[in-house]
UniProtKB/TrEMBL annotation:
Residues 192-278, 360-446 form the APO domain. One of its GO terms (molecular function) is RNA binding. It comes from Arabidopsis thaliana x Arabidopsis arenosa. Belongs to the APO family. Coiled coil: none annotated. PROSITE patterns: APO. This is APO domain.
Length: 468
């Protein structure tokens, strides 16, 4: 560590400012240095060494670097230009200011970018320290109580009562979404690349060179388009269906062909309380026991309740489908309803994922709904040889369960112009479902206006070199 008794070098973006620190700087402030822009160019000897006054006049705060793992001279600071309007150094500091965008702002979302290095592991949604703390608490609890009744739902095999209606709502919205997309696709064309997973909504494909399929180097990464389907618009990754998520939460390698694979959203709804005759699931009325980490069920099997639930659920779903089919709607109304189903489904899946665990591989798109990931050795991503083909399971996010499938935004579908590769930095993006519904007549959602870059004026092709 460098000594900071006489001169402190503060790095702001790419410039260096030398500031003379007072000798009477309080010891507790040596690790969180405070500086006011109005004092730049003045002698610190003129300032009062009062600790409280220095805190009140401070505009730049460098937090303790040990918490972030960086050296003090590597910190990037944010400058407040509203402190002293009479100081002539405003123009000097204006070039140093780093604009910080709040990622939590729902009204601003930048255009998503693909991962630079797909060989790297996906980021953990929950910090590793928190995961280690939970594992230690669980291990300590097993030592204190080797035989105990699991009380937390749904880990004890019981349903979460307040999420049963949410599961039915998600299942209904999923069916409505797929039904709406299958009708809108007759009016809004969908194209997909033959060699990669790129999807484009609009007449003809775009000319943006982003193909990563076989032979893309010889084609200068140009896409080879074909007619797409409704299943190309929204991505529903599949996972293994679990009959008993509490006692048998894992599918082994030898069962990979006997256990059916269904959509992860559908499996999440089934485990949350939706009863389907085609995919049965065991329901309990009493919690299971944990004996030295092993789950044991002492409840007698009673199949009458499950049969009644399946019959009533199937009847409700048939009535729901009948009501939606007898109404004929215009393209705009259908697009608005489909977009509402999309947002309601995503919101419901988020609520279900807060209580029901969903796992994804850290290197490939494989996903599994349940207490644990499966043991099928079929991972072909980075470092799979070290794991003997086993997946590197970690906590999944909403994008892993419901793939947004971002596509380029076409501002005027009736124009007939094709998106140019030289202008791709001016184009926006949106989820394929949102883009398809917007072209069908639905209004643009507020959370995707910035991502679509509706306020950007496209230059002409001959004006690209003139734009900074």
């Amino acid at each position: 560590m460098t000594s900071y008794t006489s001169v402190t070098h503060i790095y702001v973006v790419s410039h260096v400012v030398d500031v003379i620190t007072p000798p009477e700087l309080p010891e507790q402030l040596s690790r969180a240095e405070l500086l006011n822009k109005s004092f730049v160019g003045k002698n610190y000897a003129e300032l009062d060494s009062n600790e409280d006054e220095m805190r009140d006049s401070a505009a730049i705060v460098l937090c303790e670097c040990d918490e972030q793992g960086t050296e003090p001279n590597e910190a990037i600071m944010e400058v407040d230009d509203t402190q002293d309007p009479e100081i002539g150094s405003r123009d000097v500091f204006s070039s140093f200011v780093k604009l910080v965008v709040d990622d939590d702002d729902p009204l601003y979302t930048d255009v998503p970018k693909p991962r630079k290095d797909k060989s790297e592991r996906k980021p953990y949604p929950t910090p590793m320290k928190e995961l280690i703390r939970r594992a230690k608490e669980e291990k300590q609890l097993r030592k204190l109580q080797p035989c105990r009744v699991l009380e937390d739902t749904p880990d004890n095999g019981l349903l979460v009562p307040e999420l049963v209606d949410v599961a039915y709502s998600v299942h209904r919205c999923r069916n409505s979404l797929l039904s709406g997309l299958s009708k809108i696709i007759h009016h809004v064309p969908v194209h997909r690349c033959r060699l990669c997973s790129e999807v484009h909504i609009g007449k003809g494909g775009h000319e943006i060179r982003t193909c990563t399929g076989p032979g893309s180097g010889s084609r200068s990464a140009t896409h080879v388009w074909k007619r797409g389907r409704a299943s190309d618009v929204v991505l529903f990754p599949k996972c293994f269906h679990l009959y008993d998520r509490a006692v048998k939460p894992r599918v082994i390698h030898d069962e990979r062909f006997t256990v059916p694979k269904i959509s992860a959203v559908l499996e999440l709804c089934i485990q949350a309380g939706v009863d389907l005759e085609k995919f049965p699931s065991k329901r309990r009325s009493k919690p299971v026991y944990s004996i030295e980490g092993r789950i044991v069920d002492f409840e007698d099997v009673n199949g009458e309740n499950s049969e009644i639930a399946v019959t009533s659920t199937t009847t409700l779903l048939q009535e729901d489908d009948y009501c939606t089919e007898e109404k004929k709607k215009s393209l705009k109304e259908l697009s608005i309803e489909t977009m509402e189903s999309w947002f309601e489904m995503v919101s419901g899946v988020r609520k279900l994922m807060e209580r029901y665990k969903v796992w994804t591989c850290g290197y490939c798109p494989e996903i599994q709904v349940g207490p644990k990931g499966h043991k099928v050795r079929m991972c072909k991503a980075t470092k799979h040889q070290m794991r003997d083909g086993m997946h590197a399971w970690q906590e999944a996010t909403i994008d892993d369960v419901v793939g947004p499938n971002y596509v380029w935004h076409v501002r005027d579908p009736t124009d007939g112009s094709v998106l140019d590769n030289s202008l791709k930095r001016f184009y926006g993006k949106a989820p394929a479902v949102v883009e398809m519904c917007v072209q069908g007549g639905a209004p643009v959602p507020d959370q995707y206006k910035s991502m679509m870059r509706l306020d950007v004026v496209y230059p002409q092709r001959d004006e690209v070199d003139l734009v900074a």
